[in-house]
Amino acid sequence: MSLSTIDFSRLTLTAGMRVLDLGCGEGRHAITACLETDITMVALDPSLPDLATARERFGEFSQASKGSLHCTSGSAYNLPFADHTFDLVICAEVLEHLPNYQTALAEIKRVLKPDAQFAVSVPRFSPEWLCWKLSDAYHEVPGGHIRIFREEQLHGAVRRLDLQRYAKHWAHGLHSPYWWLRCLFWSKGPEFGPVAAYHRFLVWDLMQQPKLTQWLDKLLTPLIGKSVVMYYKNSAEPSSNPSSNNA
How far apart are CA 99 and CA 170, in angstroms? Predict the structure, then answer.
C-alpha cells in the first residue's frame, strides 16, 4: 500500500457511511479507508488504467477489508451523483492538476450531505515552489501540476462554500528531498544514482517503518512537509442551490 496523505484518525469513519475518493488514482486512500471501517467507498478518477490498478490492489486486500469499493470513471467538474450523497469526500493531491479547481470544489460541496466531512490536500507552497525552480519539466508534463497553492488561497475557496475547517497538518517530510533531487537531475531520469537511492530509502521506510525515520519524518514535516492537509465540516443545513446533476 502507498503511504496515505490523509490522516484518517482526524476523520469520523463509521459503519454505513458513503465516501467518495475524488481523483483516487491507484486507490491508496480508498483502500485504506475500506480496511478501517465498513463503508461504501466510491473511487472516482478519469484514468481507466489507474482505476484498474485500484481494483487489482483492492483485490489483494479484499479478505481483510471491512468496506466495499466501487470504482467509476468521471470528471471532477461534473460528478455523476445526486446532491447530498456522501458523508465524506476525500480529494488528495488533485486540485493542483485542475485548470478550474473552483468548479471541482463546488461539485464537492453539492454532493456532500449536511454536516458531512471533507478532507483535502495539495502540495505545500515552499517545497513545491523549489521543485518548479529546479525543473521546468516537473510542472510541464501532460497532466502535471499547473499551479502552486498558497494555503490561504485554497482555504478561502473552501470557506466561501460554507465549510468550516477543524484541523490542519503537513505531511511527508521525508518526501520533499526526493522531489528536489528528482527535479535537480530531471534530465537524467528517476534511475539516476542519487534519485534511485533515495527512492529505495523511501520504499524501505514505508515497508519497515523504523522508529528512527518515523521520528525524523515528524521532525522534518513541519519544516519541509511536501503536502498541506486540511479537514472541513459541511454546514448543517442543506445548500439552497438547485441540483445540477441527478444521476
Answer: 24
